[in-house]
Amino acid sequence: MPKNKTTDNSWVSLSDMMTGLMVIFLFISVSYIVEVQKQQKKRDIIFEEFKDTKEKLYAELDSAFKDDFKQWQVVLDKDLSIKFTNPEVLFESGQAAIRPNFATILNDFLPRYINILLKPDYQNRIAEIRIEGHTDAVPAPQFDKDPYIGNIKLSQLRSAEVLKYFRNMQYYQELTAKDEQQLQFWLTANGLSYGRTLDSDKQLTAESGNPINNANSRRVEFRIITTSENLVEQVLKEMAE
Predict the structure, then answer these.
(1) Are 159 and 216 in contact (CB under 8 A)?
(2) d(C-alpha 90, C-alpha 92), whole Å
(3) Could you tell me how many helices (H) and strands (E) the chain has, helices first?
(4) Which residues neighbour 21 within 8 Å (Cβ) at sequence distance 6 or greater?
């Protein structure tokens, strides 16, 4: 029986088309795998940089202030927060005035702290230096009838007073224009009300479940936010999409 050339040609064309599609799908798959590997490598680099920056900053701050922090009753955490928690040097209840003992500590602490952060190694690694004000759980009706909002305003005043004190220091007045501009970009004053009160062990009550220690809660913290943290947030956002 003679072969049907039309049928043979149709099968050849279909075979060629399937082969072509397989090549296209293979190319897409390989391209996708390469892109995934590139993104993973990028993420690995970001997370490694994030880890290295925080570890290096922590080690340098710990080395520079270890003895002083013990004397001042200051806590340096791995998250690069520095907690001034000694109730004898911080704020009176309902007040935002910096007490003399706290001013003495700030005179010693701030120039050394800022000198570390202004080092070239960290110029592109820091996104923000937060001065965080905290209050006890006592209402502050002089600021607002809503206890939480009243203490938001009070805690904001406390952080702003510390920043104002720093800007009036001789050290700050002698900064170069470049360093002053950098610090004005980095430094922020934040009021957190009584959302993060401390217990008698100076642990967050939200985590420990223990009663609030009002004296420990009236405090200021300095917190460094690195640029890597912003990149990590971006990576996590991309992964979720």
Answers:
(1) no
(2) 7
(3) 8, 5
(4) none
Residue with tokens 């070239």: 120
SS3 content of the chain, % helix, strand, coil (to 5): 60, 10, 25
Strand partners, 198: 204
**What's the mean pLDDT in 167-191?**
96
Q: CB-based burial of residue 147 (10 Å sphere; 0-12 exposed, 13-18 middle, 19+ buried)?
A: middle
Whether the per-residue pLDDT at 10 is higher than 60: the answer is: no
Q: From CA 110, how far away is CA 70, in angstroms rounded?
A: 16
Q: Go through the domains of the chain in sequence order and give each one's CATH number.
A: 44-236 (3.30.1330.60)
Nearest to 95 by CA among 149, 169, 151, 145: 151
Instruction: For residue 65, give Cα distances in angstroms to 38, 58, 112, 154, 178.
Output: 41, 11, 9, 29, 26
Beta-carbon contacts of residue 230 (< 8 Å; ≥ 6 apart): 127
Residue 182's contacts (CB-CB under 8 Å, 6 or more residues apart) are 118, 123
Give the whole-angstrom CA distance, residue 102 versus residue 71: 13
| Share of residues in the chain with pLDDT > 70 (%) | 80
Taking the C-alpha atoms of residue 23 and residue 152, their distance in angstroms, rounded to an integer, is: 63
The Cα 136–Cα 151 span in angstroms is 8
Please provide the size of the chain in residues. Answer: 241
Which of the residue ranges 84-88, 177-181, 196-200 would you say has the lowest mean pLDDT? 84-88
* CA torsion, ordered 163, 165, 170, 173, to nearest 10 deg: 40
Name the token pair of 134.
Answer: 């905290």
pTM across the whole model: 0.75
Which residue carries 């043979």 as its tokens? 8
